[in-house]
Recover the amino acids of this structure.
C-alpha cells in the first residue's frame, strides 16, 4: 500500500507547484512534459515489468522498481534545469511502471479469490486518496517550503516501503524451470519505442503542433512502422514481452478492450469537470476539486461490495451492470440545468464512482483468476497498459472535441469583445473585467456546450466497453484454483477449462458459477 501511494501521489503532486518550478528553472513552454514524460515512462514499461515478474518473481521486480523510483526522486530534487527535471521525471516513471503493475499482481498472488475484493478495495482507496491529496501536498510544500521537497518527501516513505517489502513479503516457492529463462530485450525495446512515439503523438498533437502537421503525421507513421516491427519480433521470440495469447484468449482480450474504453471515458470527468465547475458554476479551485473527489468516495466502497454481486451472477454480468449504469450517468450530464448548483455534478460523480467500482474490480479480479502464477504478471500488465493507453487517447480525442466546439462558437459569436484564441478563454472567465457581461455569459455557455459534448463522447466509450463484454467475453470466466488457494464457499470445483472457448488454460480449477464436479477429482485436494 505504501508502494501504491508512491506511484499514485507522484502523478498529481507536481501540478500545483508548476509556477514555483517554472519561476526557479524556467522552461514554461515545455513544462507539460513533467506530466507527459512520467505518464509515457509508466505506460510503456508496464508490459516489460509484467513479463519480468513472471520470469524472475514479483519481489525482485518490485524492489528494483522502488529503488529506481527513489533514485529518480532524488535526482528530481537536485535538478538544475527544466530539461534535467523532465529527464529525471522519466526515470521516476520507469520505476513507477514497476510499482503499478507488480503491486496489483502481488495482491492476486497473496490473496485467494474470495479475499481479493477486500485487498483491491484497500489499494483503490490508497490510490484515490493519494491522487486527491497530491495537489494539496504539492501546493503546501511549494508554498511553505521549497518545490524540491515534493520529491524529497518520497525518500522516507519509499525507504519504509522498501524495508517492509524486503523483510516481510514472502512469495510462495515455485519450481525452477528446467531451461534458464531468457528476456526478450529486443521485443522490450521495440514495445518501448512504439509506445513512446504513439503516446508522444497523442499527448502533443493539437498542443505543441497541429494534428495534420509534419511532426504529428511523422510520429504516427513511425509508430505504425515500429508496431509492425514489434509484431515480427514478438512472433520470433521464444519468450515474448507481449505474447500472442494475451489477445487470442477471449477473456483477456475482452477485459483489455473494456478497460481501455474505461480509460477513454475517464478523461471526461477527471480532465474536463474541474474546468466546468470553475468556468460554468463559478466555483473556486478547492470547491471544484471537491466536486470531482466525491467519485473517489463511492468507488472503493462499491468495489469492496462487488464480490457480493459477482459471486451470485458472475464477473461479466456484474461488469455489464456497472458500465450500463455509467452510461446512463454520463448521458445525464448534458441534461443538467444551466448553470445549475454544485451538488448536481457532485451527485453524478458520486454515482459514477459507484458504477465504475462495480465495473472495474470484477474484471481485474476475474481476469487475474483465469491464469496461473506464471502468466498473472503479463496479464495484469496488459490490462493496466490498455487502460493507460485509453486515457492518453481520450485526452487527445476529447481535447480536440472541446477545442472544436469552442473554436466554432467563437467564430460564429453573436456578441463582440470575445477572445481571439482558445488560450484566452480561461483567462477571460477568470477576470470579470476582461470582457463584457454578455461576452462572459456567452463564453460560459460555450464551455458548458463543449463539456456536454465531451460527456456524450464518454458515453460512446461506455458503449464500446459494453460491446466488448457482450460480444467477446465468455459468459463464465474460467477461474483457476491454484494448489495454494482454497476455493471460496460460493465456488464449486468443476472440470478444467480449455483455451479454445474460455481463453485460459491451466490445471483443474473452478469455473465461475459451475454447478458440476468432476468425478475424477479428489474431493479433499481438488487434484485429478
Amino acid at each position: 500500500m505504501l508502494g501504491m501511494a508512491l506511484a499514485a501521489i507522484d502523478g498529481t503532486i507536481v501540478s500545483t507547484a508548476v509556477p514555483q518550478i517554472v519561476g526557479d528553472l524556467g522552461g514554461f513552454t515545455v513544462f507539460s512534459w513533467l506530466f507527459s514524460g512520467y505518464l509515457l515512462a509508466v505506460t510503456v514499461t508496464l508490459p516489460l515489468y509484467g513479463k519480468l515478474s513472471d520470469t524472475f518473481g514479483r519481489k525482485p521486480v518490485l524492489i528494483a522498481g522502488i529503488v529506481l523510483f527513489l533514485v529518480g526522486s532524488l535526482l528530481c530534487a537536485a535538478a538544475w534545469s527544466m530539461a534535467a527535471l523532465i529527464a529525471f521525471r522519466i526515470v521516476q516513471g520507469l520505476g513507477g511502471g514497476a510499482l503499478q503493475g507488480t503491486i496489483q499482481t502481488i495482491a492476486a498472488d497473496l490473496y485467494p479469490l474470495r479475499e481479493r475484493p477486500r485487498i483491491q478495495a484497500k489499494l483503490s482507496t490508497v490510490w484515490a486518496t493519494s491522487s486527491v491529496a497530491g495537489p494539496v501536498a504539492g501546493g503546501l510544500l511549494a508554498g511553505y517550503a521549497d518545490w524540491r521537497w515534493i520529491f524529497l518527501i518520497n525518500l522516507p516513505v519509499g525507504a519504509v516501503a522498501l524495508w517492509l517489502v524486503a523483510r516481510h513479503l514472502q512469495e510462495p516457492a515455485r519450481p525452477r524451470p528446467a531451461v534458464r529463462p531468457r528476456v526478450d530485450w529486443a521485443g522490450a525495446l521495440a514495445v518501448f519505442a512504439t509506445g513512446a512515439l504513439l503516446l508522444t503523438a497523442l499527448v502533443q498533437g493539437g498542443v505543441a503542433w497541429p494534428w495534420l502537421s509534419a511532426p504529428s503525421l511523422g510520429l504516427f507513421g513511425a509508430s505504425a512502422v515500429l508496431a509492425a516491427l514489434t509484431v515480427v519480433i514478438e512472433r520470433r521470440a521464444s519468450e515474448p514481452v507481449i505474447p500472442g495469447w494475451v489477445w487470442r484468449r477471449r477473456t483477456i482480450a475482452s477485459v483489455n478492450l473494456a478497460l481501455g474504453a474505461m480509460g477513454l471515458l475517464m478523461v471526461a470527468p477527471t480532465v474536463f469537470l474541474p474546468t466546468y465547475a470553475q468556468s460554468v458554476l463559478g466555483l473556486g479551485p478547492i470547491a471544484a476539486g471537491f466536486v470531482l473527489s466525491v467519485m473517489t468516495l463511492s468507488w472503493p466502497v462499491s468495489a469492496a461490495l462487488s464480490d457480493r454481486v459477482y459471486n451470485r451472477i458472475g464477473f461479466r454480468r456484474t461488469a455489464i451492470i456497472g458500465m450500463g449504469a455509467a452510461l446512463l450517468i454520463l448521458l445525464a450530464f448534458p441534461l443538467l440545468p444551466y448553470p445549475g448548483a454544485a451538488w448536481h455534478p457532485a451527485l453524478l460523480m458520486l454515482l459514477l464512482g459507484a458504477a465504475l467500482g462495480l465495473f472495474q474490480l470484477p474484471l481485474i479480479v476475474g481476469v487475474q483468476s483465469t491464469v496461473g502464477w506464471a502468466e498473472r504478471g503479463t496479464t495484469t500488465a496488459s490490462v493496466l497498459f490498455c487502460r493507460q493507453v485509453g486515457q492518453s487517447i481520450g485526452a487527445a480525442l476529447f481535447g480536440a472535441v472541446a477545442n472544436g466546439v469552442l473554436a466554432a462558437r467563437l467564430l460564429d459569436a453573436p456578441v463582440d469583445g470575445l477572445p481571439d484564441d482558445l488560450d484566452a478563454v480561461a483567462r477571460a472567465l477568470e477576470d470579470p473585467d476582461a470582457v463584457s457581461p454578455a461576452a462572459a455569459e456567452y463564453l460560459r455557455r460555450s464551455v458548458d456546450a463543449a463539456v456536454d459534448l465531451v460527456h456524450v463522447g464518454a458515453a460512446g466509450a461506455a458503449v464500446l466497453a459494453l460491446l466488448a463484454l457482450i460480444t467477446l467475453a465468455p459468459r463464465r470466466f474460467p477461474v483457476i484454483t491454484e494448489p495454494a488457494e482454497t476455493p471460496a464457499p460460493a465456488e464449486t470445483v468443476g472440470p478444467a477449462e480449455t483455451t479454445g472457448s474460455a481463453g485460459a488454460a491451466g490445471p483443474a480449477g473452478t469455473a465461475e458459477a459451475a454447478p458440476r464436479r468432476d468425478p475424477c477429482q479428489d474431493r479433499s485436494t481438488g487434484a485429478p
